[in-house]
Design goal:
heterotrimer; A mainly alpha (352); B alpha/beta (236); C mainly alpha (407); A: 352 residues; mainly alpha; two-stranded antiparallel sheet; 2 strands; globular; C: mainly alpha; 68% helix
Chain lengths: 352, 236, 407
């Protein structure tokens, strides 16, 4: 609020419109509006002739998509919280992870699928290799670009611009190395759906994705709450100047943050590639939903990012019953704008 | 040899000069109070000592080491800690975690012991150890801030207006704790204060600053009794 | 020298004259004839000296660079003068292009309706189409601005990305609107009968247009585009020196005191955002009439948002001359990299056989590195911000005053 309107308010009391706006800016209001949005989506879907089973299976798909978005979103929210700028190249990191895993899988000999899943051990190897590699790339980008900007005391705009440049740089590198064709981890391999109660048909892969997202989120949570470095990350996100005053080596904290962010992003990329296909634009397609999840879940809050991601994922999937599925990111955008207008600090943030 | 020697420093922010030829000394185990009107440059001295600003001319020595060009984290390692006036706790972290952060550079086994000592110093913090620092009152936050700064067993602690924004009873309590810390832990204290009278009563020595320069210097008693100081800076 | 050379030389003289008007350091009354003379001489010389292929490359380069310069001017109005971080330029670019396409083409009937669909087709004249492109873009910007402009800068950036994406998705998926994803073809080129049909031009201009052939239309269009660029530049510069423009900059620099002086901040910020969007829409419309065929893929973020930011950052944000300069330089770099990758093709093929096909991505990478370099080493761009006060005062040259830079 500007100084002028604040002093006006002090002099004359809150105007009627302001009282209404203040009531609207609560957590409950935001949560209710999100719920209302879902009701509208489901109603629209039913009106278009979708069955309840279809909507239910869309919800399940949506939860899985939420896991994918969440893996990216957690990394994005950590960077946003600790480094204080929106990392527009996060989508590119996601894509990079997926493609590094792809090359690993292509290079290793094919093995039999593990259990009910469609993938073999090479994908797990791909995941294990891609995660730290992308983390290192993220640290490298920080060293080259963002650390210099930090030293120069640059404004937020320059960081955002730098991340935009890095986004295009990484994307062009991906195009150069792997080309623009669509790829699949396992060409032509089927992924039979399991029959679950309530008439839901869920692929085993989807359950794996969700479980992996859950496991990784739990690991991040434990890291942040129980380890010294995790607490230092939270402290630096909360008050970077005080962190320095307390002798915390903020550059080390920042490096850990990038490693974590890159690793999680690449996990999300691999999972997304497993669930659909690999294309160079996949990270950019996920960028808007990831930002929506991060903001809805409150910047800097990893659990919030996952909650936001599941909400976004389900909304996107359920909306496909009512409108063209291509508009999925548009649905994420609507929820993003809703959050920004009503409660920009998100569902879990405190009013500053 | 004094513990801290600020030797005729001149510095400022960007192009703007704030301090001119300022000299301050703090001996081991001493409480030194810096008072003066608003805009005198008191906080700037503190920032220069702690490495948040670097002096343009002059020198700062701590425990025999020239720290004029040191960064804050290097200064922490030499045994000096700083409690800023505002934003001096991690609001999203609990009291416990705030103290942990104070001892970030130390290894874990020593931390637990030290925390116990801090909790004995500030029993109220022990009660509220799992509470988020942001949800505490001003006085409690000040205790968390000071406790965090003490976690590393520093030789010197810098306090920037510790009584700011606190209720009078809490101010007394904080000042009493500062004296206690000084005597029990043998920590030297350099304190910038608006509350001139009380801080001079606690201090062994004091400096009066105005317009970025030294004005008067003496023991706490001398300054309290000095009629000019009393008239200009102690409110009569 | 033959008649065709003379005609083409005269056309080329127009942008050169405009450039001369800006650059020639003479008093106003002398500047115009000097610029015209210089323009004519240079124009005819260039046409006479350059081989045909190079000449048409130069003309198309100038046309595209001018279109991008218009877009960059629009961005400068939003960012340079009011601090709106708009990462969704592509949206307004697309709206301008598609609007003029819909306005100026005919709605398909009969057999054609099977292949092309569009919401309407008014067969309006060129000027109407272009202005409509600007207006519709401005209206959409206004609707967006109301909820979104008061967000803090990084949230605004994220929101504008989303808006541009939605606009692109709409044009990609809504067949009934503009034939998406199929291209919309047949956008009329203004005044093209002047080169196609000998009877079109009035008698007293027959000597000018007669020698030209249909493929020389580009010479005509470059004149149209550079004139548009000049008009927009002059309009924006005088708006800047007007009371409105001064208030804008006061709001950007000292928000609190502007508010206390009773200026309605929100309305002013919306106005500047809308003006910038109108300019972007005009640029988009001129683009559509140049390429004659458009579809959603023309407005992907790389070419329509990212590259314009590079242009403005290089040229100098807060400076309209810088905006235009940056546009020409970056378009030059982009075009230059095409030659570079062509030259490097054997080397690329030696590294990996697939690389020459992917050489356009190498060019993207170079532009990305260029932006990174600008951000790290010269964020203020080439031309610093113009410290202009009012149209009555001229520029302030006060080196002691600390530059308020955007970055």
């Amino acid at each position: 609020m500007t100084q002028a309107s604040e002093s006006a308010r002090a002099a004359f009391g809150p105007r009627p419109g302001e009282r209404l706006r203040a009531a609207l800016r609560t957590r409950t209001a935001l949560a209710s509006l999100i719920a209302l949005f879902f009701v509208l989506l489901i109603a629209a879907g039913l009106a278009q002739g979708a069955t309840a089973e279809r909507i239910l299976s869309l919800v399940v798909w949506g939860i899985m998509l939420g896991g994918v978005i969440g893996l990216g979103g957690i990394g994005l929210t950590l960077v946003y919280g600790v480094l204080k700028f929106p990392n527009f190249s996060h989508g590119a990191l996601t894509t990079l992870g997926a493609y590094i895993a792809f090359s690993t899988v292509a290079y290793l000999p094919k093995s039999e699928p593990i259990g009910p899943f469609s993938f073999g051990w090479e994908l797990v190897a791909g995941l294990v290799i891609a995660m730290p590699l992308v983390g290192l790339v993220a640290i490298g980008v920080d060293r080259v670009m963002y650390r210099r900007l930090r030293r120069q005391g640059s404004s937020l705009v320059l960081f955002a611009m730098a991340s935009l440049a890095m986004a295009f740089f990484l994307r062009s590198v991906i195009y150069l190395i792997w080309g623009s064709d669509f790829r699949f981890y396992y060409e032509g391999r089927s992924n039979p759906a399991l029959d679950l109660p309530l008439g839901m048909r869920v692929q085993a892969d989807q359950i794996f994705i969700l479980a992996l997202a859950f496991v990784l989120v739990t690991c991040v949570y434990l890291l942040l709450e129980k380890t010294k470095m995790g607490k230092a990350m939270r402290a630096t996100a909360n008050n970077p100047e005080l962190a320095q005053v307390r002798g915390i080596n903020t550059e080390k904290v920042i490096a850990y943050t990038w490693m974590l962010s890159g690793a999680l992003a690449s996990a999300g990329g691999v999972m997304y590639g497993l669930a659909s296909q690999l294309r160079p634009e996949m990270g950019f397609w996920l960028l808007l939903p990831m930002f929506a999840a991060v903001i809805m879940g409150s910047i800097g809050n990893p659990r919030g990012a996952l909650v936001g991601a599941v909400i976004i994922g389900v909304a996107q999937q359920v909306s496909s019953a009512a409108i063209n599925p291509a508009y999925g990111p548009g649905v994420a955008f609507v929820l993003l704008v809703l959050t920004l207008l009503i409660r920009p600090q998100g569902l879990f943030g405190e009013r500053s | 040899m004094p513990l801290l020697k600020v030797d005729r420093i001149t510095c400022g922010y960007g192009d703007m000069q704030v301090l001119t030829d300022v000299s301050i000394e703090v001996k081991r185990g001493e409480i030194v109070s810096i008072i003066g009107p608003n805009g005198a440059g008191k906080s700037t001295v503190m920032k220069a000592v702690f490495g948040l600003l670097h002096p343009w001319t002059g020198k700062i020595e701590f425990d025999g080491i020239d720290i004029s060009r040191h960064e804050p984290y290097e200064i922490v390692e030499t045994g000096m800690c700083y409690v800023p006036q505002v934003a001096n706790v991690f609001t999203e972290l609990t009291v416990d975690e705030n103290l942990d952060m104070g001892a970030f550079v130390r290894s874990d086994d020593q931390v637990g012991q030290r925390k116990q000592q801090i909790f004995e110093l500030f029993p109220r913090l022990h009660e509220r150890r799992r509470q988020k620092a942001g949800k505490m009152s001003g006085g409690e936050r000040q205790m968390v801030a000071m406790g965090s700064a003490l976690m590393l067993d520093p030789k010197l602690i810098l306090l920037d207006e510790p009584s700011a924004g606190l209720a009078p009873r809490m101010v007394d309590h904080i000042f009493e704790r500062i004296v206690h810390v000084n005597q029990q832990f043998n920590v030297a204290v350099m304190m910038v204060e608006q509350n001139a009278k009380q801080s001079l009563q606690m201090a062994q020595r004091g400096y009066v600053m105005a317009s970025g320069e030294n004005r008067v210097e003496g023991t706490g008693d001398e300054l309290l009794k000095d009629p000019d100081v009393a008239r200009l800076y102690l409110g009569g | 020298m033959d008649a065709a050379t003379l005609s083409k030389g005269i056309f080329i003289a127009v942008p050169l004259t405009l450039l001369g008007l800006k650059l020639i350091p003479l008093r106003a009354v002398l500047r115009l004839p000097a610029a015209i003379a210089a323009g004519l001489v240079l124009g005819i010389a260039i046409v006479a000296a350059m081989p045909g292929g190079n000449l048409s490359y130069l003309v198309s380069f100038t046309t595209m660079a001018s279109i991008y310069a218009i877009l960059t001017l629009g961005l400068n109005t939003q960012w340079g003068f009011n601090g709106h971080l708009n990462f969704g330029i592509a949206g307004f670019f697309a709206i301008g292009a598609f609007t003029t396409a819909l306005f100026t083409t005919a709605a398909p009937t009969g057999v054609m309706a099977n292949y092309t669909q569009q919401a309407f087709g008014l067969e309006a004249p060129f000027l109407v189409g272009v202005l409509a492109g600007g207006v519709v873009s401005g209206v959409i910007a206004f609707l967006i601005a109301i909820p979104v402009l008061r967000l803090r800068m990084d949230f605004l950036a994220i929101s504008t990305i989303g808006i541009a994406e939605i606009i692109r998705l709409i044009f990609q998926n809504e067949r009934w609107l503009a034939n998406g994803p199929q291209p919309l073809r047949g956008i009329p080129r203004p005044l093209d009968c002047l080169v196609k049909d000998p009877g079109c031009a009035p008698d007293w201009l027959a000597w000018l247009f007669g020698p030209l052939e249909a493929r020389d239309y580009t010479f005509l269009y470059v004149v149209i585009v550079t004139l548009a660029l000049a008009l927009i530049y002059v309009a924006l510069e005088s708006a800047l020196r007007s009371p409105w423009g001064r208030t804008l900059r006061a709001v950007r620099d000292e928000e609190a005191s502007a508010a206390m002086n009773g200026k309605n901040l929100t309305s002013l910020r919306i106005q500047s955002f809308v003006v910038g969007a109108v300019v972007m829409g005009l640029g988009g419309a001129l683009y559509a009439h140049y390429t004659v065929t458009i579809d959603y893929s023309h407005f992907k973020p790389l070419f329509s948002t990212f590259i314009i930011w590079v242009m403005l950052m290089l040229g100098g944000s807060g400076n309209n001359k810088g905006a235009m300069l940056g546009a020409f330089i970056i378009w030059g770099v982009w075009s230059g990299t095409a030659f570079l990758t062509g030259f490097l093709e054997p080397a690329l093929a030696a590294i990996h056989p697939t690389l020459p096909d992917r050489s356009s991505y190498l060019r993207w990478m170079l532009v990305a590195i260029l932006l990174a370099g600008i951000v790290l080493f010269r964020p203020q761009g080439l031309l610093p911000e113009d410290k202009v006060v009012s149209r009555f005062l001229g520029k302030i040259t006060n080196p002691q005053r600390k530059q308020h830079s955007q970055v």
